[in-house]
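Listing S7. Sequence submitted for prediction.
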Amino acid sequence: MKKIEAIVRPYTVEIIKNELNAIGIGGMTVTNVEGFGNQGGHTEVYRDKEMCVSFVPKAKIEIILNDDKVDAVVKVILENARSGQIGDGKIFIIPVENAIRIRTGETGKEAI
């Protein structure tokens, strides 16, 4: 099993969710986060003063899935989150040792 964490622009989440549903991925967790990388924040004007905002709003998508579905999920995220501009985000693929469904006690693949 793998965990995919994708940091993307918030407006891409709904599109990614719909495309993942279309390929049979029915579960994910989304968290609103803030951060910066190469983008380095941005400048805003507030009461006629220019201010540097260091942290940029992003969304973090987390999905636990079987190994055989990783490539398809990564492809969906790339196709729908990539604009070619700085700030498109990152995808992390992390091994998952086990999963347990709290309600039933199922473990491993049955739990996801």
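Caption to Listing S7: primary sequence and predicted structure tokens for the chain studied. Residues 70-81 form the longest helix (12 residues). The radius of gyration is 17 Å.
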